[in-house]
Please model this.
Amino acid sequence: MVKISWDAGHAGFGVTPGKRATDNSMYEWDFNDGVVRYAMEALSHYENVSQFRADDPSGRIDVPLSERARRVNEWGSDLHISVHGNAGPAEANGIETYVHPTASKGNRDTALHIHNYVINRTNRRNRGLKEADFQILRTTNMDSLLIEGGFMTNSEELTLMKTNNYRATVGRAIADAIVTKFGLKRKSERAASQPTNIIRYIYTGGFAGQPLQEVHDYLFRTGHNFDAKRGSDGSVVFLIGPFDTGMANFKDAKNFLDSKGHYNRLLTPEEASEWRMK
Ligand SMILES: [Zn+2]
Model:
């Protein structure tokens, strides 16, 4: 059994100060969480792999790094992967992956293998494999790496990082690299079959100005159920649903948001009720 642990850097919803796009259109966690979800989903179709997520998957609590490392060490992971979005000068771009300066050759080989998959699949600039004394790398006992999957501070990359398509590309690249690294075998189709109709909410935000008006008009026109909240930065987020994901009204809402390039993410009923309580 190969044990892979994950953590999405920081928390979402403005919980971790400063970790957001400079125009407030995305929290860093939104990207990190999306990549981790796509990667874990992709790996779930393989045999002999178990996975563990060390952060708060609802994004409401920024689990301290010491606690993340404690959980991962206790679980006894073989490989820990921390997913982040980068920040820097507006012109900085590309993807870089970090290992601890004391990392073994095996750890470095694994990190470079995963990094190369992500570079090849995304075609972003290759900033290389780097070393840093990051706490999460220093305090986890197993092979570990931290991937910075693009710069939120670069307008071109921010646009990509807000899309599920880019998050899926990065997440599935990491998963496929793990598959080849550990020689994992895909589960039979029967075992991998999933229910098609599940209940989900669509979370989307933060809107202001013309996009806010458009989304608002769409919601009233279609009669979807929704809740709205205004964030501390003045932008508005919506929780739309519940939907049966097999139904046309779900596909319509999802297509509308995707076609406009609006960031959106699916929440389980449990995540939706947590959002409402906040
Ligand atoms: Zn980060």
